[in-house]
């Protein structure tokens, strides 16, 4: 694989140079000579119908939208992202404030708003929650193709209108609907990866009047590919104990190729009838992911050598890991609203489902033995998570400036998990003459026996929620406000088939969640925004199973706790924003979260399965934490400098937190200290072209659990695009991403017991690096 990556270096450099060279073609002043400024069109959120030509041929640079209403919301329309051709909603969110990721290189899956773990961020699709496959209840945004998106909203503080699962805030992905598009377009192109692999990208969207209403339907097919190289160096001690650890304590080196290859299929459709006093809407989306993750790993007893098996060579183990992933995610909901003399009543009924089917095999030959040993493992994972929801809401005018809104919410959630495993193990004397570059351990597989249940891996969870909410909102001159209460009740039951008792266990809890927000327009350009809200975070699914997981935390055991309550947090946001230029905005926001009932692992005092010095740990609501920071963002044209067709945008967030675990103080796990990105777009109207670039960097993240500590750092990310417009209906765009050969580095401190972790007596110290090369894409769109 190293040879393959090296063989395309000349191609990579040439493509980078071509994009950079085209981006520097005209001087800014010449490009804008005698070009008149154009006003920004109304955003989709304001109810305007956008033509397909507006989407395909963008006549202006997109900036952050200024949102009215009391809530602290940042809104970004598709024109803000599209020119950089993000593949997924996660890729698009790399350009907005305070969103970090702890994903593999060139992937953006679990968003971490304010740097907190994904479970603290509420993910909404069209304003409604969707189920995900992750144990922390998070939803991976790489499941949503960017082509389906109309706009993205960052909701910094919560409202009584929405469920309260939003300690860090909410990310609302609004998909296109029938009243936002007139016409259609087709999209096609290809992506080129660093290992000389090409992947296709196709899509089509149509919106228009059909019968008494308006229809939008769109589909997308996306080839996905991510080739990475990984390397690990492992030692028996660390530099904090021994400055000469690299030579004195070397244990082994692992070289790994990791390639993720797959196809995504998606469909989005809406149909709406505007009947004046009565409106009806039905919409849905479907996303399917077929992916294969292939890893090949070699462990050597030398920092540099790559010869064959021990004892004559250096090869300790040869490992082949393949995971076949088939995931489906779909949502369908209908909404009926009627306006009558007593106000406006709306009823929304929805169903969402997420299924995850994975079949992972791992074959390994261990040569560091008198007789080589072959092991084969099969893990079968099946997760089915569905939610049925009903929301009833009524809004009535109290006066000309004040409105009362109240309603109820019902959710029926069912999650079934089945994780089964089987292992084969036997000696392979013939493997003494093994050639790791010509043969694969998969060759030695003779089949698997019956699958067995894994502790905590086979369970059914039922969660029933009934919420009531009421709020009052108003506007007087330049002052808008909202204040409300939400009362959430939850009945949770779990049956784990791997626990001997097998009885239904669970918990019931209720939470009162007040919230209030305001916006005050000091002038036509200046605004102050403030909010306070109480939110919660529900326990992770893997913590509420009553199963005992042996040696899950180093050599310590983990016992689940079905009686866990949600974490709760009081939060404050206070910000200021100013309108600049024709449509630009600059803003700053301060936030603070005081988290109570934090779920932390506690020592039960019971000896663990590994004997003396190990214990059984159980999660309990025993901790407190604080999260705080400052967020700055700006997007504007440079018309005030005589450059109306030059747009700049950027944001920077400083993120911090405090928490105390059994080892002392730390930040919330894996919270980056900072994240920033900035860029510019130059529109060349005289020749119907544009170019631009973005640069992004996020700070170091540290995480600590019992048995392991990890520090993660990422390299910077640079993207460049060039586009050429042909008339009013055709655009072709070239994009280069990950142009700095993104790298992810992790430092692992591993321990066997809690005492060892306190005394800094290492079981293993590991340095791991992961790298991927640039990705180039050429995409064309044609409007009709």
Summarize the structure.
With 784 residues, the protein is mainly beta. The protein contains 9 helices and 37 strands.
Description:
With 784 residues, the chain is mostly beta strands. It has a single domain, classed as TonB-dependent receptor, beta-barrel domain (Maltoporin, Chain A). 7% of the residues lie in helices and 60% in strands. It has nine helices and 37 strands. It is globular, with a radius of gyration of 27 Å. The two termini are 44 Å apart. 42% of the residues are buried. The model is unreliable at 1-46 (pLDDT under 50). Residues 77-169 form the TonB-dependent receptor plug domain.
What are the SSEs and their pairings?
Blueprint lengths: L1 H6 L1 H15 L4 H4 L18 E2 H5 L16 E5 H4 L7 H5 L5 E2 L11 E2 L7 E5 L2 E2 L19 E7 L13 E7 L5 E12 L5 E13 L2 E23 L9 H4 L1 E26 L2 E23 L14 E26 L2 E24 L6 E25 L4 E26 L24 E25 L2 E18 L8 E17 L4 E12 L3 H4 L3 E6 L2 E4 L7 E14 L3 E24 L7 E24 L4 E19 L2 E3 L7 E11 L4 E10 L2 E5 L2 E7 L2 E10 L3 E8 L5 E8 L3 H6 L4 E8 L3 E9 L1
Parallel strand pairs: 1-9, 5-8, 23-26
Antiparallel strand pairs: 2-7, 3-4, 5-6, 7-8, 9-10, 9-37, 10-11, 11-12, 11-36, 12-13, 13-14, 14-15, 15-16, 16-17, 17-18, 18-19, 19-20, 20-21, 21-24, 22-23, 24-25, 25-26, 26-27, 27-28, 27-29, 29-30, 30-33, 31-32, 32-35, 33-34, 34-37, 35-36
């Amino acid at each position: 694989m190293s040879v393959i990556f090296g063989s395309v270096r000349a191609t990579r450099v040439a493509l980078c140079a071509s994009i950079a060279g085209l981006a520097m073609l005209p001087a800014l002043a010449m490009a804008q000579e005698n070009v008149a400024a154009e006003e920004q069109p109304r955003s989709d959120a304001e109810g305007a119908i956008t033509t397909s030509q507006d989407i395909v041929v963008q006549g202006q640079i997109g900036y952050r939208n200024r949102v009215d209403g009391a809530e602290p919301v940042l809104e970004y329309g598709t024109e803000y992202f599209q020119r950089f051709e993000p593949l997924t909603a996660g890729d698009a969110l790399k350009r907005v404030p305070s969103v970090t990721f702890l994903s593999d290189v060139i992937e953006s899956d679990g968003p971490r708003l304010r740097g907190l773990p994904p479970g603290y961020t509420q993910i909404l699709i069209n304003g409604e929650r969707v189920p995900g496959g992750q144990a922390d209840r998070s939803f991976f945004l790489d499941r949503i193709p960017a082509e389906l998106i109309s706009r993205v909203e960052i909701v910094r503080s919560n409202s009584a209108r929405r469920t309260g699962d939003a300690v860090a805030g909410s990310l609302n992905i609004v998909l296109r609907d029938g009243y936002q598009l007139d016409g259609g377009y087709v999209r096609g192109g290809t992506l080129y990866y660093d290992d000389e692999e090409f992947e296709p990208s196709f899509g089509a969207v149509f919106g228009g009047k059909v019968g008494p209403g308006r229809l939008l339907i769109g589909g997308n097919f996306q080839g996905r590919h991510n080739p990475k190289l990984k390397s690990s160096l492992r030692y028996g001690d660390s530099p904090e104990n021994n400055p000469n650890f690299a030579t004195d304590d070397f244990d082994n080196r692992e070289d790994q190729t990791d390639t993720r290859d797959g196809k995504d299929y998606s469909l989005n459709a809406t149909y709406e009838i505007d009947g004046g006093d009565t409106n009806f809407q039905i919409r849905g989306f479907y996303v399917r992911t077929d992916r294969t993750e292939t890893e090949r790993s070699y462990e050597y007893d030398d920092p540099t050598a790559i010869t064959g098996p021990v004892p004559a060579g250096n090869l300790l183990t040869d490992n082949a890991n393949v995971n076949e992933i088939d995931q489906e995610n779909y949502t369908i909901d209908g909404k009926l609203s009627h306006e009558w003399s007593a106000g406006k009543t709306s009823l929304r009924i929805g169903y969402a489902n997420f299924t995850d089917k994975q079949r992972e095999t791992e074959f390994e030959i261990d040569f560091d033995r008198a007789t080589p040993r072959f092991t084969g493992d099969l893990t079968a994972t099946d997760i089915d998570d569905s939610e049925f929801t009903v929301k009833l809401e009524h809004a009535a005018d109290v006066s000309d400036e004040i409105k009362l809104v109240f309603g109820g919410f019902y959710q029926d959630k069912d999650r079934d998990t089945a994780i089964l495993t089987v292992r084969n193990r036997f000696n392979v004397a013939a493997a003494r003459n093994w050639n790791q570059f010509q043969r694969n351990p998969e060759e030695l597989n003779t089949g698997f026996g019956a699958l067995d249940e894994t502790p905590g891996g086979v369970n059914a969870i039922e969660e029933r929620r009934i919420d009531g909410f009421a709020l009052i909102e108003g506007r007087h001159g330049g002052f808008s406000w909202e204040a409300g209460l939400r009362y959430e009740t939850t009945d949770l039951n779990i049956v784990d088939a791997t626990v001997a008792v097998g009885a239904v266990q669970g918990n019931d809890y209720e939470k009162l969640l007040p919230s209030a927000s305001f916006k005050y327009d000091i002038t036509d350009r200046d605004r102050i925004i403030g909010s306070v809200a109480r939110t919660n975070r529900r326990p992770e699914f893997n913590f509420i199973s009553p199963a005992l997981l042996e040696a899950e935390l180093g050599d310590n055991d983990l016992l689940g706790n079905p009686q866990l309550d949600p974490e709760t947090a009081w939060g404050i946001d206070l910000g200021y924003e100013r309108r600049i230029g024709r449509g630009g905005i600059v803003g700053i926001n301060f936030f603070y979260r005081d988290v109570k009932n934090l779920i932390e692992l506690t020592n039960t005092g019971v000896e663990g399965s590994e004997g003396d010095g190990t214990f059984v740990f159980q999660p309990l609501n025993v901790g407190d934490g604080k999260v705080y920071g400052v967020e700055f963002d700006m997007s504007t044209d440079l018309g005030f400098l005589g450059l109306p067709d030059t747009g700049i945008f950027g944001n920077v967030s400083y993120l911090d937190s405090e928490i105390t675990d059994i080892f002392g103080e730390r930040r919330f796990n894996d919270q980056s200290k900072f994240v920033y990105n900035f860029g510019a777009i130059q529109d060349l109207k005289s020749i119907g072209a544009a170019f631009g670039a973005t640069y992004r960097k996020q700070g170091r993240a540290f995480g600590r659990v019992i048995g392991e500590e990890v520090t993660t750092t990422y390299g910077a990310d640079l993207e460049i695009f060039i586009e050429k417009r042909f008339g009013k209906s055709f655009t072709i765009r070239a994009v280069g991403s990950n142009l700095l050969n993104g790298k992810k580095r992790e430092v692992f401190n591993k321990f066997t017991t809690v005492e060892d972790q306190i005394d800094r007596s290492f079981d293993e110290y590991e340095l791991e690096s992961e790298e991927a090369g640039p990705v180039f894409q050429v995409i064309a769109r044609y409007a009709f």
